Amino acid sequence: xxxxxxDRNLEKETNKQAGWTHDLMALGLECFGLAxxxxxGGRTALKDDFMAVVESRASKLTExxxxxxxxxxxxxxxxxxxxxxxxxxxxxxHKSFGEYLTARAMxxxxxGLIRQLQREDDPITAKEAAAKWATLVSSAELTKDVIDFLRxxxxxxxxxxxxxxxxxxxxxxxxxxxxxxHGFPMAEAGHPSYRQAETHQRCAEGALLTVLSAIAGTVxxxxxxxxxxxxxxxxTGKTVYRFLYGDNLSTAARDCIQRLWRADAPAIRYGxxxxxxxxxxxxxxxxxxxxxxxxxxxEADxxxxxxxEAKCNRLHIDSARxxxxxxxxxxxxxxxx
Length: 337
Prior knowledge:
Helix content: 40-55%
């Protein structure tokens, strides 16, 4: 509904604005959404915030002075009067427009990174892609409403062949794997404190995992096939030895969840769906309310874990240890066959 509403209005506005095309105007609106989201409120933003987003992802908008006056981007989504003077800016008529445009921008940029990773001539590295993603997200936390739009936008954007979507998911997973191994490159972020850099890292990591989960959710399930799973290359050497069972379990996924899990940060609650957590040490982990649908928990140790109200549809839980785990009020608890 939001896509049709905005795209139809853009067709009308394009004919009124000299030098603008439908794609350029859509790009500008996506930048509006990102700037409002990164600004913290989701509904309003200053022109300086908007220009920072344009510089990082849409430099073509600065050509020929197209955005010298941001009031030129008037659509049904944005109030026709912007603030002028020292606090030039704009606001959305309703916050949901900004949330939709944020999701649209994030999926568009994810597809852009995938194309750059796949190109035959001079493809970018996973490190370069991670740096670009961190610049896009900045230090903004995903909200549940943006995540809901991400899921819908992923279904529209990846309505291609199953094989192509699987390859796209695999390529973007390489970027997530790099971030697990090395973190997101922060050399050019210019953070004045460690805490700000830490927040930036967490937000970029959570947003990328959530986008991956949304893309994975578009892969049709087939019998005996695990192509829907997100399979990161977790850091090696981070294990815990279980003396009673004589095996080693990885602590890497646990570290990732603990970095991202915050009471007011829904990204990790929704990003765990379809994630490969097999052979992971998750003993006594707090996972209440998490979406674990389709996740791979085979041979994982969830002893004493708090799984209250977790969504557990079509879990892979063969040989998983659930001793003393709290499974009360779990939703759709069933094992994938």
